[in-house]
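Sat 14:20. Reprocessing the chain from the morning session after the first attempt stalled halfway. Input below, unchanged.
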Amino acid sequence: MNIGDAASRSGVSAKMIRYYEQIGVIPNASRTASGYREYEPCDVHMLRFIARARDLGFSIAEITELLDLWRDKDRRSADVKSLAQARVRDLRHKIAHLQDMADTLEDLANACAGNERPNCPILQRLETSETGEGTAFRRPPEKGFKERIG
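Finished this time. Tokens:
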């Protein structure tokens, strides 16, 4: 089957299939006499494996390692489990970080009156660091500044 068929059957775009070949995640496809890539059902199976691993947040390096373990009939399940547990730890860390960000932003949004007045704690917080010190960027010029300086 050609790359378009492999892409539609695996759920991996043709562009990503070419990329995976280029970086060595999957072996280069065989070629037809006219030079077109040719894929077998086992290639589609491997691409589906990769797609499921990506959906679970595994990196390219981790997917390569998972593929190596998948192909190795003498693998230790402990090695696979270790990769999965490391991914879970990383995801939980990211979730906690995102939750902290959401909580902070929600607190700031709740503290903002959202009225016609110019004071806004959201902008004030963005302007200063955690310690309350000014950041490296400057306040934008006031309206009419260019007209006043000529």
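Strands lie at 30-31, 37-38.
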